[in-house]
Amino acid sequence: MLKLNNPDLLRNACLVAGEWVRAGSGETIIVTNPANGEIVGEVPSLAADEIEQAVDAAQKAFTTWSRLAAKDRSAALRRWFDLMVAHADDLAALMTAEQGKPLAEARGEALYAASFVEWFAEEGKRIYGDTIPAPTNDKRLIVLKQPIGVCAAITPWNFPAAMITRKAAPALAAGCTMIVKPAEQTPLTALALGVLAIKAGIPAGVFQVVTGKAREIGGVLTGSDVIRKLSFTGSTEVGRILMAQSAPTIKKLSLELGGNAPFIVFDDADLDAAVEGAIASKYRNAGQTCVCSNRLYVQAGVYDAFAEKLAARVAALPVGVGTEAGVLIGPLIDGDAIAKVESHVADAVSKGAKIVTGGKRHALGGTFFEPTVLTGTTQDMKIAREETFGPVAPLFRFETEEEVVAMANDTEFGLAAYFYTENVRRTWRVAEALEYGMVGHNTGLISNEVAPFGGVKQSGLGREGSRYGIEEYIEMKYLCSAIG
Ligand SMILES: NC(=O)c1ccc[n+]([C@@H]2O[C@H](COP(=O)([O-])OP(=O)(O)OC[C@H]3O[C@@H](n4cnc5c(N)ncnc54)[C@H](O)[C@@H]3O)[C@@H](O)[C@H]2O)c1
Ligand SMILES: O=C[C@H](O)CS(=O)(=O)O
Fold this sequence. Notes:
Blueprint: E1 14-16, E2 19-21, E3 28-32, E4 39-44, H1 48-65, H2 70-86, H3 88-99, H4 103-123, E5 130-132, E6 139-147, E7 150-154, H5 162-174, E8 177-181, H6 187-199, E9 207-209, H7 214-223, E10 227-233, H8 236-246, E11 252-256, E12 261-265, H9 271-283, E13 293-299, H10 303-315, H11 335-350, E14 354-357, E15 372-375, H12 382-385, E16 392-398, H13 401-409, E17 416-420, H14 424-433, E18 438-441, E19 460-461, E20 474-482
Parallel strand pairs: 7-8, 7-10, 8-9, 10-11, 12-13, 12-17, 13-16, 15-16, 17-18
Antiparallel strand pairs: 1-2, 3-4, 5-6, 6-20, 11-19, 14-15
The protein binds nicotinamide-adenine-dinucleotide and ligand LB4VBGO6.
Nicotinamide-adenine-dinucleotide binds near residues 154, 158 and 233.
């Protein structure tokens, strides 16, 4: 049974226009714990007309929220940040219950999510325009930066808090209003963020959370011409659908999509550091992050040593229910997820790969999977082409720098990449040659609120976090004033 220090955070209603509402139909979506299948809560399945009410409320709230002084919006966001930090344990308990990640990792995400609110509370006070020297002295030219308007966000289950605040914080800081549709697997955390937003004094309609059938809600949000901006984080497949649905209303889009990260270990790398980096980037959230290493390329001279070191560490990773102390690997989100992981391992083995450790469902049953290391993997395998989204590290052997850069870039994805070398010249060559939005050098952890997060190619459009993230919620207006 989920126990919260503040039970007020556990909601079974949607946040619309400052009120907690249920579906008129009474229809609900059950939320279950992936570790044991137990019911954690239930949330409304709102109908299209009820989503339209949220759109109307967001439009109404925009009029006043956008006209507030930036400093006043900043103060409200700062209060939201303070409340998120004060309630980090409860937010973590909700995430572990509905997503499965270990409690310590969930608490880390609660603070990571809060960091975006803290960051953009400040960035919102520094949205600067331009004055431009006019070509003739009878004109004055300026550039105004203004909030784009009503925004929508559709977010994934793997980071139930951070993927929401990484969008809502810059949107609200810029003066926009936002309607959030969280993943059906993890709505409770999103609703708890709504509780804290109200407590922070964020006015009704500025931040709203709606739950229900994804396609139906997506159809309303993408089809509305009141909504000027859609920010989506999720699979590339769904990103394509939403992009197409947004075309008729020419929405501004931010797309944070799928990945297929290469993790390259050159023969001059610090092998122990590379092993720790691989553990961090591959097995975080049981391998269910968009920036997880998906392909590990190891130069021939150190391949066997790296494989042995990594397998020893992976075999010792504690698997279990996220609420148990010391657990580092929780369950996968659902049956489809574990079936995909199994299919990747089976395909690799059928084409000649060897299982060094793990390789099958964990004895705990359910959606627990053994942390796995494969050797002898090759580019023709599913695990090289698709995002595994599970705790499986396939090791690919390579001979030369040119060969591995070509293999690393041989994908439609371009989100994150990692490489380990102590050679300065090689560092510049490889960093510049990798076709990815984000590159880690001698580290497997690159994500934070101050750096631009996002991908190239079919991993998305735009950037989140950093000083760039707020630009996604701003329109530029050029004013030419004749004074002659
Ligand atoms: N680039 C990033 O920052 C980032 C971050 C996290 C996850 N991801 C990606 O997300 C995927 C895993 O998350 P997921 O399984 O929740 O992704 P998903 O695309 O299945 O779902 C994401 C969100 O979209 C909604 N959705 C699904 N189909 C929809 C439709 N037809 N219309 C409207 N909404 C729809 C879902 O309900 C959910 O809220 C992985 O590919 C991962 O790489 C990317
Ligand atoms: O899944 C992708 C998220 O963006 C994870 S993180 O931002 O790297 O923590």
